Automatic annotation (TrEMBL):
Gene3D superfamilies assigned to the protein according to its UniProt record, in alphabetical order: Divalent-metal-dependent TIM barrel enzymes
Keyword Kinase assigned: no
Keyword line: Isomerase, Manganese, Metal-binding
Keyword Isomerase belongs to the record: yes
Gene: rhaI
UniProt GO molecular function: L-rhamnose isomerase activity; metal ion binding
EC number annotated for this UniProt entry: 5.3.1.14
Superkingdom in the source lineage: Bacteria
UniProt-recorded name of the protein: L-rhamnose isomerase
């Protein structure tokens, strides 16, 4: 069978693929050394949403925008939701922030001082209120907590306080809301981190209940970690709530997903599909796994960077869907080591770009969304319009 024939078979499965884009990807960002300003950068949350809606308009792949509180704080979130919906996108995951307040220097949800813990918990309760107005399903918690020196903190006591704080937050969720807990092996803490790995995140969310899940950020592991194994395990346990997609060469680089290692993205998507994490699994049609980007575009234009990212995810999803699972299973069961590997590599090496372009055109989209965006004049327009004011960013 030719790959085009096979593509025709998997094409319907690509329908409805949804990738959530982060509002902060549209703002200026940088490293500890420099934040480069760029022309056309949004000055308000509305402008970030307008840019995200543009990514969706050109790709059909990004129907939700994830917000960060307080970076995206507005007076009226119901109005913001209407504004987004008028532009053809919805508001997605709400991200909390307990890493930019002096009170949290030694911890937030884990702090020894009950006043600081209460303040951090209250911030999450405020985020849940925002979710009610925006219609968001997920509260995403990434914690910058840990210690820099052995002996600095009681690691076990911090786990206990974390469990207690998360319990209060989880109990405040509505029935249709979820909590996703992200892990990261180091940074900003360098000796120990309170939620460093999927195991710790799993232990904490498993104690909370069914609507608490793990968030896997692809940049948050030690080099060489087999991330697709973690994906397989979490799906097996019913606890993979969301992805923060990005790619990395060294640490938490937050580069364009699929840029550093497209083969890894392919392998992850193979396990997502194998584990039933792809496609709508809930009665409301929303996928159980939220596929989010968590990226920063420090030197490249942000909208093209986001377009490239969602296209990379779509491309590796298509290749993963092309995997001949019957042939793979037969080879695995026959103990055919190289045969099984060849089946997997055949899918990975299938160039789906022309098929995807035709697929898009059939749906009224441009075959090449990136070129179509560059030719559309949108970039020139925002660069001309958005002068003055403070550019929004990773502030
Ligand atoms: C931090 O390293 C985590 O990846 C967070 O998910 C995220 O980048 C941060 O919360 C910005 O929103
Ligand atoms: Zn992340
Ligand atoms: Zn990160």
């Amino acid at each position: 069978m030719t790959s085009t024939t096979r593509f025709g078979e998997i094409a319907p499965l690509l329908e409805g693929q949804a990738i959530e884009v982060p509002s902060w990807a549209y703002g200026n960002s940088g490293t500890r050394f420099k934040v480069f300003g760029s022309a056309g950068t949004p000055r308000t949350v509305e402008e970030k949403i307008a840019d995200a809606a543009t990514v969706h308009r050109f790709t059909g792949l990004a129907p939700l925008v994830s917000l960060h509180i307080p970076w995206d704080l507005v007076d009226d979130f119901a109005a913001l939701r209407r504004y987004a919906e008028d532009l053809g996108v919805g508001l997605g995951t709400i991200n909390s922030n307990t890493f930019q307040d002096d009170d949290y220097k030694l911890g937030a949800l884990t702090h020894t001082d009950p006043r600081v813990r209460r303040k951090a918990v209250d911030h999450h309760l405020a985020c849940i209120d925002v979710m009610r107005a925006t219609g968001s399903r997920d509260l995403k918690i990434w914690l910058a907590e840990g210690t820099n020196y052995p002996g600095q903190g009681d690691m076990r006591g911090r786990q206990d306080r974390l469990a207690e704080s998360l319990r209060t937050i989880y109990d405040a969720l509505d029935e249709d809301q979820r909590l996703v807990l992200e892990y990261k092996f180091f940074e900003p803490a360098f000796y120990h981190t309170d939620v460093p790995d999927w195991g710790t995140s799993y232990v904490q969310v498993a104690a909370l209940g069914e609507r608490a899940m793990v968030c896997l950020d692809t940049g948050h592991h030690a080099p060489g970690t087999n991330i697709e194994f973690i994906v397989a395990q979490l799906l097996r346990l019913g606890k993979l709530g969301s992805f923060d997609f990005n790619s990395r060469f060294y640490a938490d680089d937050d580069l364009i997903v699929g840029a550093a290692d497209p083969f890894q993205l392919f392998r992850i998507m193979v396990e997502v599909i194998r584990g039933g994490g792809f496609g709508p699994a809930n009665p409301d049609g929303q996928s159980q796994v939220a596929f989010m980007l968590d990226q920063c575009h420090n030197i490249e234009d942000k909208i093209p960077g986001q377009i490239r990212s969602v296209l990379n995810v779509q491309e590796m999803t298509a290749r993963a869907l092309l995997l001949d699972t019957d042939a793979l299973r037969a080879a695995q069961e026959a103990g055919d080591v190289l045969g099984a590997n060849e089946v997997l590599m055949d899918a990975f090496y299938t160039d789906v770009r022309a098929d995807l372009a035709a697929w898009r055109e059939e749906r009224g989209l441009a075959g090449n969304p990136l070129r179509a965006y560059l030719a559309s004049g949108y970039q020139q327009q925002i660069e001309a319009d958005r002068v003055g004011g403070t550019q929004a960013g990773w502030n």
